[in-house]
Amino acid sequence: MDLSSLKLFKMAMTRMDWAAQRQKVLSQNIANADLPDYRPKDVKELNFKDVLRRAEPPPVNVARTNVGHIKGTIPEQDAFRARGQAKTFEESPDGNQVIIEEQMQKVGDTRSEYNTAVTLMSAHMKMLSIALKGTP
Fold first, then answer.
1. How many whole angstroms separate alpha carbon 135 and alpha carbon 113?
2. % residues pLDDT > 70 (the chain)
3. Phi, psi for residue 10 in degrees, rounded to 5
4. Contact 25, 78 (CB under 8 A)
């Protein structure tokens, strides 16, 4: 059974992908907290209406038609683009605007959203299992 064809699972997987991408961006902010003139970034908030509109058709991937062809060297684009934060509350004398406490709060919030999506998927997997087998 292909679970990605079910919209509920697709939405949960998209939420998990978004959370993983956001964790990556937030960790880069924390890692650059002492870099002069560094501006923190964040990932655009996920809008599920847009996700459902873009669900079909699936993206087209480049295919090698001959084993002698070299695999592409351009890395895959991240599904969710990082953007600069519009406003920060403070700035260090060297121009760095990363506030560690704020970034750590965002990391915690993102982890909670990821865990919620995992819990939702797990509960629906159990429900499908019961429906198919008749026992948990």
1. 29
2. 68
3. -60, -40
4. no
The answer on pLDDT for 106 being more than 90 is: yes
Per-residue tokens: 58 = 């699936």
Neighbours of 129 (CB within 10 A): 12
Please, which pLDDT band fits residue 104 given cuts at 50, 70 and 90? very high
Q: Give me 120's structure tokens.
A: 């939702």
CA distance 21 to 27: 10
Question: How many Cβ atoms from other residues are within 10 Å of residue 14's Cβ?
Answer: 19
* Token reading at 78: 């991240």
Residue holding tokens 């939702």?
120
Tokens of 82: 């990082």
CB-based contact 77:10 (threshold 8 Å): no
Q: Determine contact, residues 52/14, Cβ cutoff 8 Å.
A: no
- Structural domain boundaries of the chain? 3-56+78-133
